[in-house]
From TrEMBL:
<dbReference type="Pfam" id="PF13911">
    <property type="entry name" value="AhpC-TSA_2"/>
</dbReference>
<protein>
    <recommendedName>
        <fullName>Thioredoxin-like protein AAED1, chloroplastic</fullName>
    </recommendedName>
</protein>
<dbReference type="InterPro" id="IPR032801">
    <property type="entry name" value="PXL2A/B/C"/>
</dbReference>
<dbReference type="InterPro" id="IPR036249">
    <property type="entry name" value="Thioredoxin-like_sf"/>
</dbReference>
<dbReference type="GO" id="GO:0009507">
    <property type="term" value="C:chloroplast"/>
</dbReference>
Length: 262
């Protein structure tokens, strides 16, 4: 189902209410002179959280934390990142340790980095990429997804989504740190991200709240953002990088295919 939505930072409150499998939104008057934007996330079984934002110089920043909104890059990884990747290990669904660069050392791969394994937007991204898997395979390109969490979480994600690619866990977040993917409240609760969550729910995608509230996700606040790279063959051969500026910041699929399959 297609949906066209818009929002503004001027004095309204956008409230997202999540109960069971229902997500709704409503605009409420806000008489505050500070023109704040407030996201309220409610779960009948788990949590109730309100985050308030104040627009400054056209950007949305959290009122209680200072964060960069991130940058997008579509070039080679820096030398520091490639050096750090030499130390990064991920785990397959059987719990085997694998140096991350082995995922593209002998082949070309599209590697997606999820926000976390319960994320509704990441589940939509997984389908978004898997829809082009036949074209990737025809070009000898592997499709890989890495998530910041445990092997058990990775298995649950794989079973729930039936993702057609390979799934790996990065419980230490070391790959995210090597690529300098952004993290923070201000990159998670944005107007665009909120609207994309609504659209994802209307399309039938669902957040896994049990995975979302497991300890190793909550300890990072669930604020981690991911990205997509095209790499290989060769450990240091990274030809395309997209760093999410905010939750749900999917790049154009044609840009990915051009980088991996042209």
């Amino acid at each position: 189902m297609a949906i066209s939505l818009s929002t503004t930072l001027s004095p309204n409150t956008l409230q997202l209410n999540r109960c069971s499998n229902h997500l709704s939104t409503r605009a409420l008057p806000n008489q505050s002179p500070h023109r704040n934007l407030r996201f309220s996330l409610h779960s009948s079984n788990h949590w109730n959280k309100t985050i308030q934002f104040t627009p400054q110089r056209g950007l949305v920043v959290a009122s209680t934390i200072s964060e960069s909104p991130g940058i997008e890059s579509s070039g080679l990884a820096g030398e520091d990142s490639t050096n750090l990747l030499d130390t990064v290990k991920v785990f397959d669904l059987n719990g085997n340790t694998i140096p991350i660069s082995d995922l593209w050392k002998d082949r070309k791969a599209v590697v997606a980095f999820a926000r976390h394994f319960g994320c509704v937007l990441c589940r939509k991204r997984a389908d978004y990429l898997a829809s082009k898997k036949d074209k990737m395979e025809a070009s000898g390109v592997a499709l890989v997804l890495i998530g910041p969490g445990s092997v058990d979480q990775a298995r649950a994600f794989s079973e729930q989504t039936k993702f057609k690619g390979e799934v790996y866990a990065d419980p230490s977040h070391s790959s995210y740190e090597a690529f300098r993917f952004v993290s923070g409240v201000s990159t998670t609760f944005t107007p665009k991200a909120g609207l994309k969550i609504i659209q994802s729910y209307m399309e039938g995608y669902r957040q896994d709240w049990n995975l979302s509230f497991e300890k190793d996700t909550v300890s990072r606040g669930g604020w981690q953002q991911g990205g997509i790279i095209v790499a290989g063959p060769g450990k240091s051969n990274i030809s395309y990088i997209h760093k999410d500026k905010e939750a749900g910041d999917d790049p154009n699929i044609e840009d990915i295919l051009k980088a991996c399959c042209s």
